[in-house]
Specification:
heterotrimer; A mainly alpha (305); B alpha/beta (342); C mainly alpha (304); B: 342 residues; alpha/beta; 7-stranded mixed beta sheet; 4-stranded antiparallel beta sheet; C: 304 residues; mainly alpha; 0% strand
Chain lengths: 305, 342, 304
Amino acid sequence: MLLRYIARRLVIAIVAIYVLATITFFLMRLVPGDPFAGPRVAPEIRQALREHYGLNLPLIQQYGIFLWNLLHGDLGLSLSSRGHPVTDIILQAAPVSFDLGIRAMILSISAGLFFGIVAALHRGTALDYLTVVLVLIGISIPSFVLAGILQYYLGVYFKVLPIARYENFQSTIMPAFALSLGTMATIARYMRSSMLEVVHADYIKTAYAKGLTARQVVWRHQVRNALFPILTILGPAVANVLTGSFVVETVFAIPGLGRYFVTAMQNLDYTLVMGMTIFFGAFLILMNFLVDVAYGLIDPRIRLA
Amino acid sequence: MSTPETILAVEHLTVVFHTYAGVVEAVRDVSFTLGKGEVLAIVGESGSGKSVTAQAVIGLTPIPPGEIRSGRIDYRGTDMARAGIATLAKIRGAGISMIFQDPMTSLNPSMQVGKQIREVLHQHRSLSSAESIAAAVELLRLVGIPEPESRLVQYPHQFSGGMRQRIMIAIAIANNPDILLADEPTTALDVTIQSQIFRLIRDIQKRFGTAMILITHDLGLVAGSADRIAVMYGGRIVEEGLTDQIYYNPQHPYTLGLLNAVPKLTDSGDAPLRTIEGLPPLLINPPDACAFADRCPFVMKICRQKDPGYFTPVPDNRAACWLHHESAASQRAAFTSARVPA
Amino acid sequence: MTTLDPSLFEPDRERPPDALAGRVSLAFWSDVWRRFRQNGPAMVSLVVLVLFAILAIVAPLFAKHPWDYTDLMSTYEQPNWEHWFGTDALGRDIWISVWVGARVSLTVGLTAALAQMVIGVLIGCFSGLYGGRVDMVVMRFVDIMIAIPFLIWVSLFMLVLTPGIGSIIIAFALTQWTDIARLTRGEVLKLKQTEFVIASRSLGASGWRLIIRHFFPNILPIIIVAVTFQVTNAIFGEAFLSYIGLGIQPPLTSWGKLVSMGISEMRDNPYMLIFPGAAITLTMLSLQLIGDGLRDATDPRLRR
């Protein structure tokens, strides 16, 4: 049963990646005019690209070539970086982004869960209201505004933290925090409402009827069951961190995937954009798949169906 | 007949709830006692206050929005209405246990069933793991779950509704409580399973001599099991007495209505179901009057002006009805003749 | 026992007025409004939004010059009595810029959200009504669309279309209908199990009227709440696009553009970021609170 569940999810994931690649391919072909004719593309590159992509061939053949290349990990050549293979650019920038992203996720999840649980347990008190307010601000403030403000006040005004680049631990603090706030707020809010919902469940009444103390009921029964729905937002949370990285890396001048993507868009570097889109998409689809698998392993109702 | 030693004494209990529409008086001045090993059935419609009463006995009234405004719930010297959390926690699950209505949601879905049973054991006794596992197996066997050893590690969703209720019963009796509260234990179950589970509860009660408060809306259910019956309406006990007397010689029009509502074998197939006209009262700022007055076929002027208090028309009984006042002779006669012989 | 007047024991013939009179029954929408009104933060947010909308419409009308009037004699001015929010690199008044930008951002937000709603409801109804294979295919398609974060979708579309207000709205509408589609489909499925089945037997106009009468009141609150949140996404998305240059083009301006300029000037002129930043944040905060308030006010379970 569990194997069937995982297999189905895997098939869906693979199909999704395929469909995404196809959509991206055709979308890029919709660009009016010749995408490779832009002023930023050096002539010798243009020729190499024409051959590489077989632009003279019928569309279907181009599509075939595209898929074939894709399966071999060849995402084409970048327009604006002198024909650098897209794959290389991605591989070079990925580690930085992953490092930043993981820090942000750890921060979001731990702080988010903490605040969510604490707020729910102290419902109605000042602590609860404070958390709710912080959550609202965290969700509402756009990441670029936050990044800008942090950079100014902590970096320039108070000169507490470095404002750019990504060299030592201190320089990771602001970007990681800016990146994590939105997700932290979302997790806190969901955890809080999940805890408050679980508290009305019948099995909590049963737990009290057994003579358990409040602390025992909360930790053994309430928190455990409140965590389940949080798993379902982990997938979107990763997506949020990923898109947040576009802004945060740009503002803090961090040489990661996000910044490359933004510059690629600004430079109309279609091949790079396309390649990165497929990469991002595949990554997120994979992440969602992993979350699904994790859910299947943890929820006994699925594991032992 | 020897009176069993009293193990629970509820005195003038009043429980209210603060809602956005006002203060609802769910339980109004309720008093009763429970003897050792005795089975008391509390019967009434939804909203009569029966569940709230049971919750208060075990100290599970949600506060807020609930509030125990007055009264005393005496269990072995402890006032359950006022005791501290620590005291209540010691009593719950050991001295007083409760079974809830819906077995589908009363068990923690992410915890093994065996763990949930052993949890209540470890909470009140010092046992080793091996001992509690053995005890849990025995309990499952006792409540009729086959192959208990292998089922200990399973999760609630792997059991049917009836079996989950059996597990609940196992948890409730694990520490051999003095009092077992059963709040509509069979209402949410399949009709075919209902009698099985009910018989199980009865058998266990008899076997261990546990005192029991059985809460139900179905008068037909408790005929063979209860020693005494208390009928609740509008937050009050309107009649209380021995089982036989309640069934054969009811002293309150509401009790009569409930009895008549139970279809009898002697009814003809297409006879209409007998119901009690009207709806239960909304208990916000209830007036000083009989709560049943608006639905009572024997209502008198005084019923709407003053609350009746209790009369004792027959031995071992009390009924809150003006019909038993000396001046109500003619109406009482109408009431007596209205009682269709069983 | 005190003696009581025997006449009191005569049967009481008059029946009292309906006991139900004690229960307060309200029409649905007035009840929603009543509950919403009790929500402090939501009401304040409503006021704030209305205020912003009024300012967006009215403030530029009272300006001495159009927003992009450049005054090279008064560049980079701190907020003062003449320029409430200061001026930017070209001497443009930021107060006016913010409210002109508000027009764009709010319009884009609202229009995009409404367009999404239309598409989403249509697709959701379609998928739910036909059920079976069609439903499965559509839902798989939705899953794939959801797999890509909306910013990436929107950015892709913007690359293909020429940047501008229209394209932004189209980009959003074509890619963000998924949430509403899901919700609609869910309600349609629920409805299918109830009256629709019976209605379809009586076929024709009466069936349709039944659907409309029962279906829309159920789905409307859910949709409205969802749309409110979509407006937040749309405003954020537009700001993001403008920030990276793919959004609003001159001669228009939007909050995103203003923030983007503000960030580059953060070091010396923080006010250039703070005012537009605050405008966006407050708007999104207010929408969030209103969305929450609406959801709480329309939730049948919370009717204690």
